[in-house]
Specification:
Layout lengths: L9 H9 L18 H9 L13 H7 L3 H5 L16 H56 L36 E4 L7 H18 L5 E6 L8 H8 L5 H5 L1 E12 L2 E10 L2 H10 L1 H7 L10 E2 L5 E5 L2 E9 L5 E7 L2 E5 L2 H22 L12
Length: 380
């Protein structure tokens, strides 16, 4: 009842076989137009060349004209509508395809090129900034992590310990000389016996503090360092020697301080004008001599015996002395040594002055001796 449209009767198959196209007669393969991409590229590159419109007639139209009525209505062969191709003028073709493609390509390439350049510049800038930041970070981190290597010097060999010897204390310059005369300035015009005796007491304490074992010589000078003569000094101090004695002594003199077993004693060395006359006048004046020389005696509360002076000898020098009673190491001694009258207020003071004057005379004599030259003789 129902017939399968897809089924084919034997008669129909025969007809189809009879109506098959002959490839040699009806359709040749080499006549079928083939549209390739190379043609499209060529048309884009050469838009002004004319195209053969006949080549664009579809193959289907040719095939449709060769079909029978049954073949055209066959469900296996879709009918192909015959379409007449519209003639396209070269001008329209060039306007629709190449020109549009050209405009679109220009529109698309120009912004793309600009955007690409901007993107490249931005990428380079970003890479530069990032690279600089990374380099800075790594350099700072390296400085913080890697401390500077400090090469410590090799320890030097320990030096041998040197025993520190304490430096000797600097010796203070002596205020008093034992080989040269020292100076004792006084205001001779405004001084009296008490003032001058107080000054002598002050210098006696200074010599005692120095602990000098020998006698210390002083030259009496005024405030302008001019030497004061013995007669002026004797008058101011209160020495009451007789005029005969004063006539036989000179103007130059020295005052001596001597520490006799912690007892300060004074003495004099006065130039002698005539040793014989001076010796005779002093011998006649021995009874009052201790009283006349009393201002040279520093201690008080003593008395001298009324006995006569005793005699002694020291280093070939004759000494006359009178001891005081009640105080040890206190006496009046006098002697003439060389060209000097020596007066002391103790036995040891007189001897110390004799030693000092003899040593001074010997040094002065040695300086005055001339060394003989070659070929000369000493005069005796």
């Amino acid at each position: 009842m129902f017939k399968n449209p897809n089924s084919t009767d034997p008669q129909d198959a025969v007809n189809v076989q009879q109506q098959n196209f002959s490839q040699d007669k009806d359709l040749k393969i080499e006549d079928v137009p083939i549209h390739t991409m190379a043609q499209d590229l060529y048309e884009i590159e050469h838009p002004n060349e004319k195209k053969d419109i006949a080549q664009e007639i579809p193959v289907k139209t040719v095939i449709a004209q060769s079909l029978t009525e049954k073949q055209k209505t066959s469900p296996f062969l879709n009918p192909i509508k015959e379409t007449t191709p519209e003639k396209i003028t070269p001008q329209a073709k060039t306007e629709t395809a190449p020109e549009l493609f050209k405009i679109d390509s220009q529109k698309n390439t120009e912004p793309a090129s600009k955007n690409g350049a901007l993107a490249i510049l931005a990428s380079i800038l970003i890479l530069t900034i990032v690279g600089a930041g990374v380099y800075y970070f790594l350099s700072i981190q390296k400085k913080n992590i890697e401390p500077a290597v400090v090469v410590s010097p090799e320890p030097a060999a320990p030096e041998p310990a040197v025993e520190q010897v304490p430096a000797p204390a600097p010796e203070s310059a002596p205020e008093l000389s034992t080989t040269n005369p020292n100076y004792l300035p006084i205001d001779i015009e405004n001084s009296d016996s008490n003032t001058l005796k107080n000054t002598l007491d002050e210098y006696a304490q200074k010599v005692q503090s120095s602990a000098i074992p020998t006698s210390v010589e002083f030259l009496i000078v005024d405030q302008k360092n001019n030497p004061i003569t013995f007669d002026v000094f004797a008058k101011k101090l209160g020495l009451a020697l007789s005029p005969i004695v004063m006539q036989n002594i000179g103007a130059d003199f020295s005052l001596f301080f001597y520490n006799d077993h912690s007892n300060m004693r004074l003495g004099l060395a006065i130039d002698s004008k005539n040793n014989a006359l001076l010796k005779t006048s002093l011998s006649k004046e021995e009874k009052s001599l201790a009283q006349e020389l009393q201002p040279l005696i520093l201690p008080t509360g003593y008395e001298f015996n009324p006995a006569t002076f005793g005699s002694g000898d020291y280093n070939g020098v004759a000494i006359k002395y009178l001891n005081a009673s009640g105080i040890a190491n206190l006496s009046v001694d006098y002697a003439i040594s060389g060209k000097k009258l020596i007066i002391g207020t103790s036995k040891m003071t007189a001897r110390a002055i004799i030693d000092y004057t003899l040593a001074t005379e010997e040094s002065s004599t040695a300086e005055n001796i001339k060394v003989p030259t070659e070929g000369s003789a000493l005069i005796k």
